[in-house]
Each structure stands twice: as structure tokens, then as C-alpha cells.
Amino acid sequence: MPLPDTMFCAQQIHIPPELPDILKQFTKAAIRTQPADVLQWSAGYFSALSRGEPLPVKDRLEMPVATQKTDTGLTQGLLKVLHKQCSHKEYVELADLEQKWRNLCLPTEKLRALLQLDPCEKKMEWIKFLALGCSMLGGSLNSAMKNLCQILTTDPEGGPARISFKTFSYVYRYLAGLDADLPRSDIESYLDNLKENIESRKNGMIGLSDFFVAKRKI
Amino acid sequence: MGATASPASLAREPLARRRFCGAGAAGRSQEPEAPRARNRNFAEVRRRDRVPRCLATGVRAAGRLCAPWSEPSIAPTACPGSLPPRPPHFLPPLLASRNSCPWHYLHLSGSHDTLAPTCLKAKLHRKGGGPRPDVTLSLTDHSAPTMGTYTYTSRPRALPCQRRRYRDSLLQPDDEPMHFGNIMYDRRVIRGNTYALQTLPLGGQPDPVELQRQQQAKRRALARKRAQEQLRPRTPEPVEGRKHVDVQTELYLEEIADRIIEVDMECQTDAFLDRPPTPLFIPAKTGKDVATQILEGELFDFDLEVTPMLEVLVGKTIEQSLLEVMEEEELANLRANQYAYEELRNIELAEVQRLEEQERRHREEKERRKQQQWEIVHKHKETAQKIAARVFAQRFLADLLPSVFGSLRDGGYFYDPIERDIEMGFLPWLMNEVDKTMEHSMVGRTVLDMLIREVVEKRLDMYEHKKHKRPSQGPTD
To answer: Bias category Basic and acidic residues: which stretches (chain B) (predicted)?
Structure first.
């Protein structure tokens, strides 16, 4: 029976059946991501949803870190979101990246500052950007590598967080190369040392415990 | 009766029945007026029972016969269907006496093997005047004296209406209540003491004299019956190929009118129809119809109406989302912790393995070193012992050597070979040779001695011989 034109009671109001589900998913995503600017983030969310792209949603709820106020506001979860959105291509367009950056309610100046570390024209290798972001998260090179491992790994959260040694050494060399203080020979010897350790035991995969825990123990 | 009865008796029988029946019917119909009928009691019934034919069957037969010509009002009088219900014969008497229908059965004193039915209430209220369905006695007690047990059969029938359903007039009180009889006049009820009462001998042993008497009486009755049967003239047996048939043997042929003409009729009721559904009850309308016109938008404000729905939608969504997020976070945390612990455990396990391996290697090294040291110490000790022994031996031998040599030399272990050769070889030979030489000389001397002796002897002989011959010559030779 078609709905009459005139409405007489509240029972006549029709709610599209998809609406509650979309609303719920959106609410959950918003709760989980905790964007600073909900409107901006929602625009990004729905545009990604309509285009069928990966949604700018964190996998896990992140407690607001103390450094978020003072620092870039970048967190591991946000980097992970960016990784999820951009990692399908090897190179990422800077404009696209900036759009995504803004959708995550991150200040554009920070992006600029980040990009100044390794200036490039229009495109950037995604893995390099990710490495830069990781280095921005934590102080030392080791903690940056740890964050990188946790983002790139396919292991479940809390697991050994293994990535291939090739990627690891590439990123390590890249990050270490940015730092002029580190002598090249030290980097190579460190990598060789790690490589021996790893190849003796694991099949070319480097885990968090291989380099991070050892450092912590010392 | 039947086929063997003579035609004459056969023809007589219905008439007799009819007469009897008519008398009976007349008697019944006159009962209200007959004073004795009112007070008819058991004894009278019994007396009537004594007629050769049982009253009950007679009455029943009469009723059947009377039907065509007697008035319907009279007919039911003899109808056995109007009998009051009688209790089944197996009911105990006392139980039966409590029944609304007062048919009782008494174990009559004096003849303990017979049970005689009796009726307390032979008369029912029939004050109503005209003849109407009434109680009829139908006693089938003809078997009672011989059988010893009472049997009763009655055809099933409807319960007769014993009371009138309404009073004739309001003014006239129902002055004649139902008589159920006074139990004190019941002959089956024993009054007074029971000491003098004849009872069954205990143990079921009847008196033999009494038993004999009964048997004799029975036999007598049987003999009488047989004699009667023999006395009665009988129809001779039909000849071969024929049989007896009932025929009318009266002077005038009559139509048998008492036969009921039967015609089969059928009557079929319609099939049952389903009951139609009960129509919905609609109460009659009351009040007045009034109408109010409502213009569009007067009653419904979308923004207003949608608010609660939106509130529910948003509130529920947020509530549920929060719940779900919390739940999922909790689960994810649990899982993450689990993985972290597993990872930690793996690392620790590896560390433990490494330490164990290290420990094992250390222990092995220690063992090896210990072994080595032991060997060294052992060799040291051995060497020292050897040196000490050597020194001791040297010193010991130093003293020993000269004496040994001396004693050995004394023992002749050290000798000159030439000297020994002369001693061992030459001297014995020399001695041998000397001996031989001396023996030779001895032998020569002995031989010489012997020669001399012989010569001497011979000379002696000769001397002597010569002396003898020259005894005179003198001994100065």
C-alpha cells in the first residue's frame, strides 16, 4: 500500500532500512577513531565509503597519548590508517596524501614539516613516508623501527610483529641515512649482525624481539 | 404346544387366553374400584402364581393378544414394558431393599433353598382416575422351587413415569405420597429374636432325612408329570412324506384377524448440516455521529513527530555502538595481551633453552677439565712413586751387590774356563790313565809273583826230594 501524501501520525514516517546499520557503523567508527574534527573526518569517511576505499577508521581505540597535544598529533593508529589507505600503491600523490591527512584532522603544517625531511616533487614512495612518520612518533631510531614493524606486520596485534628483513634493512638504511651523524659502517655492521642472527633462526623475517628487546635489555 | 398339539386344543388355546386376558384386563381396569385390588399383597400374588401357567407369561401373552381389539388405554396394563425396574438378581437383598423400586427378595424362612420374589408395593399411586400405565407384576418364579436359586429376566424398557409431572390442581394437596411399604410388614424381615429360627446346619451338611424327603417329593412330582403326559391323547406321527400343519378345524372358517399386518416403511433423516458460523456480535449503535474537519498539517508536525523516533534512533545507535566498541575493544585487548604473552613466553622459552644449552656446555667443559686435571695429578703421583722406588732400589742394591758377588763367587758362579776345563776334562783323564798304567804294572808284578812263586815252589820240591834221598848226607846243605 503506497504511503498517503499527508502524514497523520508518527507511524507513517519511513526509515530506510539501511540507515540504522550505516549509522551504527559510522558511530562505531567515530567512537573508535575519536577525530578532533568530526565533521571533517565524517566527510572523509563517507567519501571513502561511497568510493569503496578503505575507511579512515582505526582498528583499535587509542587512548589519547600525552604527546598528541604537544607533538604532531600523529599516532601509530593514525599512521596505520594512512597505511591502510595508501599502501596499495607504491608511490603516493602528495595531494592525495594531504587530503587524507586532513581527513584525519591532522594539521597540514605537520605534514609540510614531515615532508621537509625528505623533499620531493609530487610523488613520494609510501614506505619512505611511513618511515618518516614512524620516526616522528618516537624519539630513537629503534623505537621508530618498532612502530614501523607494528604497522607493517601481518601478525596479530601483540604478536611477534615480523616483517621481511629486506624491508627492514631498506627502511633502516633510509632513516639512518637521513641522520648525518651515524657513520655508514656502523649501520652496515649492525644490519649484518642482525642478518646473521635472523638467518640462522628465522626464514628472513625480523621480529620485534630481534632488535628491540635486545636493546631494552641493555 | 406347537406342532404336536391337537388341532382342537390349538384352536381352544387362543380363546382361553383371550378369555383369561379379558378377565385380567377387566380386573385391572376395575382395580381402582376393587377394594381387594388395592390391598393386594404378596400372598394374593403367590396364589395367582399357582395357576398352572405362570401369570407373568400369561399376562404377557394376553397383552399381545389383546392389542388389536382392546383400547390402548387398557393395553399397557398388560404390557411388560411398564414394569418397574427390578434390580438384577445378583444384587444382595438388602441392597435391593434400599432401591427406589421396592422389589425385594427374601430368603424365606422354612424353605431355605428357595428364593421367592415378593412385592411390597404392588399398588402404585393410581389415584389419577382413569386406567393408565401401571405396574404389572411379572414374576417368573416358576423355576424357583426346583432350581434353588432365583433367576429373573426382564426385557429392557423405558423407565416408567411413576409420578405425575404436575399436580392436577393447586388446591388439592398431594395427599398421597409414594408408598414404599412398611418394612415391618415385610415377611422377609425377621422380627423378634432369632434363637428359634431354623438355620442352615453349619458346614453345609443338610439333614439326610430332610434330603431324602425332598428327593422323594421330587421324584413323586416327576412321576405325576410323566403320568399326565402319558394320559393325554396325542396326535399320531405323520406318515412318510408328510408333516403336520396347523389348520383351522372349527365349523366355520374364520379369518385370522389377530395377525398384525406388517408393512416395511423407511424413513431417512437428512444428513447433518454444518452449523453456520456465529455472526459477529455488533452492539447496536448508540449516540450521535458528529464530524470535525481537520485540515492538512493541523494534526501532524513532522519535526515534532520525528523527534522521539530520532532520539530513539540516535540514542540506541550510540548506545549500541558504544557497547559494541567496548566489547570489541575488550576482546581485542584480550587477544593482544594473549599474543603478547605468547610472544613473551616464546622469547623466554628460547632464552631458557639457550641458558640450558649454555649450562650444559659449561657442565661438559667442567667435566672435561676436571678429568684432565685428574689425569695430570694421577700421572704426577705415578712418577713420584716411580722415582722413589728407583732411589730405594738403588740404595738397596748398592749394599747388596758386593755380598751377592761374594756369595756368588763363593757359590762358584764365577769361574776360569781353562781351569774348569783342566779340572773337568784333563784331570779325570789323567787319573784314568794313571790308573790304567798302575794296573798294568800291578798285573805284571802279580804275574811275576806268580812266576816266582811257581819257581820257588818247584825249587822247594826239588829240594825236599833231594834231602829225602840223602838223609844221611846230612842236613848241612
So the answer is: 226-241
Whether the CB-CB separation of B179 and B102 falls below 8 Å is answered with no
Whether residue B456 lies inside any domain: the answer is yes
**Cα→Cα distances B21→B60, B181, B352, B453, Å:** 9, 29, 129, 221
* Beta-carbon-side half-sphere exposure of residue A85 (alpha carbons within 13 Å): 29
Q: Where are the domains of chain A?
A: 140-218
Residue of A nearest to B303 (CA): A10
Alpha carbons A131 and B382: distance in angstroms, whole number: 72
Which residues touch A15 (CB under 8 Å, ≥6 apart)? B309, B313
Cβ within 8 Å of residue A124, ≥6 positions away: A91, A92, A94, A97, A115, A118
In this structure, how many other beta carbons lie within 10 angstroms of the beta carbon of residue B27? Answer: 12
pLDDT, one tens digit per residue, over A138-193 is 767 777 888 888 888 877 777 777 787 888 888 888 888 777 777 778 888 888 88
Query: Considering the domain boundaries, does residue B424 fall inside one?
Result: yes
Q: Supply A122's cell numbers.
A: 609530487
- In chain B, how many domains are there? 1
Cα gap A59→A51, rounded to integer Å: 20
Residue B446: domain span: 417-466
B214 phi and psi, to 5 degrees? -65, -45
Confidence (pLDDT) at B242? 87
**Cβ contacts from A onto B, under 8 A:** 73
Which class is domain A140-218? mainly alpha
Asked if residue B201 is part of any domain, the answer here is: no
> Hey, of A157, A206, A212, A217, which one would you mutate to test binding to chain B, going by the most B CBs within 10 A of its CB?
A157
Rounded to whole angstroms, what are the CA distances from B295 to A4, A9, B292? 15, 14, 10
ipTM > 0.95 for the complex: no
Percentages of chain B per state (helix, strand, coil), in multiples of 5: 55, 0, 45
Closest by Cβ to B306, choosing from A13, A20, A156? A13
Q: What is the pTM (predicted TM-score) of this model?
A: 0.43
Q: Can you tell me which residue has the cell 399397557?
A: B76
